[in-house]
Amino acid sequence: MHTDLLSFQFWTAEQAKSILDLAIKIKSSPSKYANTLSGKTVVALFEKPSLRTRVSFDIGINKLGGHMVYVDSQNQPMEEREDPIDVGANLSQWTDAVVARVFSHETLVKLAAGSDIPVINALCDRFHPCQALADYLTLTEADGELKGKTLAYIGDGNNVTHSLLILGILLGVNQTVVTPVGYEINDNIQAFVTELAEKHNVTLSFSSDIEVLNNVDYIYTDTWLSMGDSTPLHHIKDKFMPYQINMALLNKTGARYVMHCQPAHRDLEITGEVMDGECSLLMQQAGNRMHAQNAILAYLVGNVALDD
């Protein structure tokens, strides 16, 4: 059993499918899981601002019968005040789990090292596993069986890209990543997912040429500048604009659905026409954040078996 969820890197394909199935069950039969976290408290420790993650965790924990305590660390990153190992050890004295949204993945590793309760990654610089699970839940609802379908991620190679690749490969989804030169995904993650794709017989490709993109089922994008990146927009706009998600790209590629983890910037990385169009799954993704996270909480904190 996985004590923590820092990423899906070391999960099996069977576990990945089972956590997705659990999310579907919890969404379809919420009353069955209404007491899953009864008597349990989850601390949400956030170094970064949040709308969807904070609200969906808070309401979701409540719907599972638990209680969330929010700890705002935005004015002072955790490491500047106290070693994350000690933070984890202290929180273990009072609470049943920690949900952490941090700048550095290493902060999560240290937090988990000092803790004997589950630590759940609510976003770091390297991974965003809760988002990825919500995304594949959304695609399953929209399109049924995912195995053999193709997801194209376009834009800045980042934490969302990494998690989409890992979980997608485990679920049998072919992956295409198209990023501007200089904005590729992490080299170590690329090596990892390349090996993982070979193991699971999944097609995987990387390119900087948007023109090579054809015959995909889903297109996914994210902001051009990640949260906390102070690069002026005008410095990168010309480089990224050819990678904009618009109707012309949808028509060219044949993509049936478009996704974005939000916050989205209309008419920059994605046009308003696409965001509001019939191919858009953006709001369904946002709604499914809660259900995906509740599956993770039910498994790690509520001891619900994945094959239940």
Strand order of the largest sheet: 7-6-5-8-9
Instruction: For the record, give the distance between the C-alpha atoms at the N and C termini, rounded to a whole number.
Output: 14 Å
Gyration radius, rounded: 19 Å
| Average of the residue pLDDT scores | 95
Give the name of the CATH architecture of the largest domain.
3-Layer(aba) Sandwich
Report on the biggest sheet: 5 strands, parallel
Order of helices and strands: HEHEHHEHEHEHEHEEHHEHH
Count helical runs: 12
How would you name the CATH homologous superfamily of the largest domain? Aspartate/ornithine carbamoyltransferase
Supply the number of structural domains: 2
Shape: globular
- Per CATH, what is the topology of the largest domain? Rossmann fold
Pick out the low-confidence regions.
none
Structural class: alpha/beta
Number of strands: 9
Give the percentage of residues in beta strands. 5-15%
Please describe what this structure looks like:
- The structure is a single chain.
- With 308 residues, the protein is α/β, with parallel strands linked by helices.
- It has two domains: 13-128 and 289-300, Rossmann fold (3-Layer(aba) Sandwich); 131-286, Aspartate/ornithine carbamoyltransferase (Rossmann fold), CATH 3.40.50.1370.
- Helices cover 42% and strands 14% of the residues.
- It contains twelve helices and nine strands.
- It has helices at 13-28, 52-63, 78-81, 84-91, 105-114, 129-143, 159-170, 187-199, 233-240, 247-253, 272-275, 282-300, and strands at 41-46, 67-72, 97-101, 119-121, 150-154, 174-178, 204-207, 218-221, 257-260.
- The strands form two sheets. The protein has a five-stranded parallel beta sheet with strand order 7-6-5-8-9, with helices on one face.
- Strand 6, helix 8 and strand 7 (204-207) form a beta-alpha-beta unit.
- Helix 4 (84-91) crosses helix 5 (105-114) and helix 6 crosses helix 12.
- The chain is globular and about 55 Å long.
- It starts with 12 loop residues before the first helix and ends in an 8-residue tail after the last helix.
- The mean pLDDT is 95.
